[in-house]
Amino acid sequence: MDRKDFLRTSCIACMGMAVGASILPGCAGAKYAKAAREENGLLVDLSTFTSGKRSAHRYVIVRDELLQYPVCIYDLGGGQYSALLMQCSHQGAELTVSGDQLTCSAHGSSFDKMGKATHKPASKPLRTFPVTVTRGKLFIDLRKQT
Ligand code: FES
After folding, report:
1. Where in the sequence is the domain holding 4, given as residue range(s)?
2. Ligand 1 atom closest to Cα of 107?
3. 121 CB less than 6 Å from ligand 1?
4. How do residues 33-82 score in pLDDT, each as one tens digit?
5. What is the CATH number of the domain that holds 117?
């Protein structure tokens, strides 16, 4: 392969990856959001779902030192949100998020964006928190974990 062929092949591969990343939102990097601590929970600015160069985020991840695991917040549409503790209900490993699914690398369980177990060995749902929208912010109530 000469230099010209190498450059042509490399450019085509790079363009393919760029196009693929733009049409597969599940492959986009996770969006981490800052949360302000309130007396009974966390406040997350709604603009975190729309900030950045990419189109709207379907979920954001919040970390807080009060919680051993991060919380994944999904925008369900219609002003509805779910907040899921990213701790596997099987044996407690931390989950990863991709698109509308949370997965556990320990034994392969997966969960949907409402926290329902969709792939065993986990059979119990994830712990969730109530979410309310107040003046452009989401309030995640940490007192009412289910
Ligand atoms: S700890 Fe997650 S599947 Fe076992």
Report:
1. 1-28
2. 3
3. yes
4. 888 888 889 999 888 887 655 556 789 999 988 889 999 999 998 889 99
5. 2.102.10.10
Q: What is the pTM of this model?
A: 0.77
Whether residues 22 and 51 fall in one domain = no
Distance separating alpha carbons of residues 69 and 5, to the nearest angstrom: 48
Give the Cα separation of 70 and 59 in Å (integer).
13
Cβ atoms of 128 and 115 within 8 Å: the answer is yes
Number of domains in the chain: 2
User: Which residues make beta-bridge pairs with 139?
Assistant: 43, 132
- Is the CB of 109 inside a 6 Å radius of any atom of ligand 1? yes
| Rounded (5°) CA angle 76-109-69 | 65
Atom of ligand 1 nearest to the CA of 92: 1
